[in-house]
Amino acid sequence: MTYQPPHVIEIATAVRERRTLAREIIDEALSRISRFQEPFHLFTAILPELSRQQAKAVDARVLKGDDLPLAGVPFAVKDLIDVAGVPTTCGSRAFANHKAAADATVVKKLVDAGAVLLGKLNMHECAFGFTGENAIYGNCPNPWNTERIAGGSSSGSAVAVSLGICGFTLGSDTGGSIRMPAALCNLVGLKPTYGRVSRAGVMPLSWSMDHIGPLARTAEETAVVLGAMAGADGLDESSSASGVPDYSAELGQEVRGLKIGVPRNWFFDSLQPQVAQSVTTAIDRMTALGAKRVKATLPHLPEVLGSHRAIILSEAASAFEPYLRDRPEDFSVDIRTLLQGGQFIPAVDYLKAQRVRRIVRRDWAKEFARFDCLATPASATVATSYGQSKVKLPGGDTPLLNAYLDMTMPFNLSGQPALTVPCGFSNDNLPIGLQLVGAPFSEAMLLRVAHQYQQETAWHHRHPPLG
Q: What is the mean pLDDT of residues 25-48?
């Protein structure tokens, strides 16, 4: 019998209709954790007692007639998101005893909606890296090829869904840390609009560019999860008071008539041929469904990368300054070097970067008014090997930082919503992702486009050989 991974909507429906019990779902998930934890170093904290208590509570609420959109769905969170009574380590030795006093707002909302928390997930230390390597908790490899990276910094978040342990997970995204591992592991990963989802109870890396979002197999599942976790929060002054739509309601609308912007600059300049082919074919599929292709040009992209770097280094140095001052040896050498480097960013450079951000938002808003969403590759390359520092692309040997993050980090600076959706595989069976980007608070439209694309393709039905 072929194993069928957990599907958010199918599980919640079965539990609500009392065709299965939440505690049965959770027992199966905990069994899979036992199978995969050691080879994949998925979790920094496994919480079987808590998850069984929550599952029992879900079954009781269902009996009472509570309508729970995520009834019994197993999930886990990146270990920079607070869970009451559990250390929030941020993947670092520096925070091994940093026990949270309360649940993060997103955890509380999801549990209130019936989801069941399994534990906390491995990540690149301090969320400050894109490979997902972690010297403290162990590397979390890619299930499609365990010699390759899963991507970061939300490595555990991607792998836990890919291996069928969780129906969905939460990650954070400051430069691509949800979208890139989702793309490398054949998942949908959504970075919502800045302020769409509360960050209360989340350890910061860069306060003005951090985003919290879900990873799941499909846009349909992602829509349900986003609906449960989005919205204003009095504990997070950056959260938006903009109303939360019914993200699932629009999924069935066709894409006919929508304008898909395809960049003429930057994003397609130097890609692995199989990535270029898969992304182009995906865009062709959308136009076959009735969408209209529109040429797009985003100005200021070279300046965006420099500004992103100045902001993230400065804000990270500020966020971790007390710990770096008192216990620098608790950070890995590469993370300590980055944080110390951020202390030497001149204030004038930080302010210039913020001015670039304002100009970018102004000028990109004009460009995005010409189309409904932008379509780009999620990365220039498929998953690379551990220890690899460069990748050969048509434009020459390219640092991995650029090959992965040049596609994603611009939209952390702009704060726009962006998601990745599976769109193909390389010849050596490694996933390829398509990135869709919209105007602020256009998540419903992005999910609709991704869902309609997934209705016409079967990439998301493929599972890693270890599943």
A: 98
